[in-house]
Amino acid sequence: MTVRVLLLFGDQAEIVTPYRDHTDPERVPVERLVRETGIPREGLAGTELVAVVSADGELEHFERA
Description:
- The protein is about 10% helix and about 45% strand.
- By secondary structure, it is mostly beta strands.
């Protein structure tokens, strides 16, 4: 699923998805996004990513779009 990093807040990134908009974003550790995508922290805000979703609907892994 395509997601977008809305903003960074401390050590958390707020992620908007087709199911969760800016009023209720997913929160993901910035360090996790950097590790999984290779995108540096300063380049994450506004970035479009692909999220691999598990069978139970959890955001399991992130990749560059």
